Every structure is written in structure tokens, then in C-alpha cells.
Structure to design on (131 residues):
């Protein structure tokens, strides 16, 4: 019975050791608590404005079919989050992350082939038009 318990305990230690990830953040002791320290540097810079104010409104960018790649390139360059693409409507829903909403609207309007940029206030359910 003691051998069985020792074998079971040894197997669980081996299993726990094998399951540990090497990419987990290392832990360091600071004054008053333990803080996780990442093993790698962030790949993006800190946003220049408050993230909550930047995400207050998503943008719906309507474009001509030949301007789709230019809109995608601008979103990538600015670091904007593309939430959805509607190929049937030639539209893309974009959320600005690093820039002011008004500056982002002006940047997308400056692209040749963009027909309209709308700040979407959002609603939880689609609104039916009144008759």
C-alpha cells in the first residue's frame, strides 16, 4: 500500500512538472505584494489617448470596391481595430484605438473612393424604422 501511494505521488509530481509552461510570466516580489513580470517587451506602443474615450464610437466606413485595400491599409497603419467587413455593402466597421474619433473620421474621408464615414453610437438590438 505504501509503494502504491509513493508511486501515485511520484506520478502526480511528474505530471505537474511536465504541464508547466515556459512562456508564463515570472513572479517578482515587490513591496507589499507579488507582481507578474512579462518575459517579453510589448509589441505596440502605449495609446496616445484614453482607451475608453477612443472606443466610445465605432466607425462605419463606406467605400467603392476599388478602395477596400486602401481602407484596410489605413486601419493597419493607424492601429485601428477592424470589427467587421460587409462586402455586400462595401463597408467596414472600424474602432479607433490610438487616435481621436474625429481625427480618424477625417483620415478615412481623405481616402479616394471612400463615400461616407459614420460614427456608430451602437445599440444592443437593431432598431426597426417607425412607420
Amino acid at each position: 500500500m505504501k509503494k502504491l501511494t509513493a508511486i501515485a505521488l511520484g506520478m502526480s509530481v511528474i505530471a505537474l512538472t511536465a504541464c508547466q509552461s515556459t512562456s508564463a510570466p515570472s513572479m517578482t516580489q515587490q513591496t507589499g505584494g507579488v507582481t507578474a513580470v512579462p518575459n517579453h517587451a510589448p509589441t505596440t506602443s502605449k495609446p496616445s489617448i484614453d482607451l475608453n474615450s477612443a472606443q466610445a464610437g465605432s466607425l462605419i466606413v463606406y467605400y467603392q470596391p476599388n478602395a477596400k485595400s486602401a481602407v484596410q491599409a489605413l486601419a493597419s497603419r493607424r492601429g485601428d481595430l477592424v470589427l467587421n467587413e460587409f462586402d455586400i455593402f462595401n463597408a467596414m466597421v472600424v474602432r479607433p484605438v490610438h487616435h481621436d474619433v474625429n481625427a480618424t473620421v477625417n483620415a478615412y474621408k481623405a481616402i479616394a473612393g471612400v463615400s461616407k464615414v459614420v460614427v456608430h453610437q451602437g445599440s444592443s438590438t437593431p432598431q426597426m424604422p417607425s412607420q
